[in-house]
Amino acid sequence: MKKNALVCLTLLAVLTFAAAAQDTAKPKAEDRLPAVTPLLVQVVFTEYDGEKKVASLPYSFTVNADERRARPGSQIRNGARIPVATGKDQFAYIDVGTNVDCSATLQEDGRYKLQLAVERSSISPGTPAGSNPVVRQFRAEINPVLKDGQTVESVVSTDPLNGHVYHVGVTMNVMKDR
């Protein structure tokens, strides 16, 4: 009887140890799913002709920052499709407007690194009627590192054809629970 009790106790101890080892081997939910922080991002394209502000185009959107890696983020596509003659009674369409792509990652120091691809295209004024349009185009890929509430002017570029200066400002805010 003592022998059977000792075998049962030993078997129970082995099973308990195996179950405990199996529990610790399972990844915890927080290890499997990276923490996500919602951010509100504003990108402002500003165009100057000398000292005169010609245009200011703001775009605001949310993007989720992942603590461990950049995830596919937010995209904005805003514009029009312009017909361009390619032959007699034949047309192709080109996209004109603004495109913004953004993803974000949390840095070890608590700031956020944004991965931004921005593009703005427009029809050049003064294109003669009946001719194909001249399309102005600005593109940039920028990676500002921002803290909550910070604004940076991340790009300043001059159009070589008309001398207009383009500024791209970026503001980032951590969204609070509402």
Structure description:
The structure is a single chain. The protein is of the alpha+beta class. It has one domain (34-174). Helices cover 16% and strands 56% of the residues. It has helices spanning 2-25, 29-32, and strands at 36-49, 52-66, 74-87, 90-106, 112-123, 135-142, 145-146, 151-158, 165-174. Strands 1, 2, 3, 4, 5, 6, 7, 8 and 9 form a nine-stranded mixed sheet that branches. Strand 8 and strand 9 (165-174) form a beta hairpin. The longest helix is centred in the N-terminal third of the chain and has 24 residues, at 2-25. The radius of gyration is 28 Å and the shape is elongated. 11% of the residues are buried. The mean pLDDT is 83.
The percentage of residues in β strands lies in over 45%
Q: What is the residue-mean pLDDT, rounded to a whole number?
A: 83
Strand segment count: 9
Number of distinct helices: 2
Reading the helices and strands in chain order gives HHEEEEEEEEE
Number of domains: 1
Query: Kindly, what is the distance between the CA atoms of the first and last residues, rounded to a whole number of angstroms?
Result: 66 Å
Q: Outline the biggest β-sheet.
A: 9 strands, mixed
- Helix fraction, binned, reads 10-25%
Write the SSE topology.
Blueprint (H helix, E strand, L loop, with lengths): L1 H24 L3 H4 L3 E14 L2 E15 L7 E14 L2 E17 L5 E12 L11 E8 L2 E2 L4 E8 L6 E10 L4
Parallel strand pairs: 2-4
Antiparallel strand pairs: 1-2, 1-9, 3-4, 4-5, 5-6, 5-7, 8-9
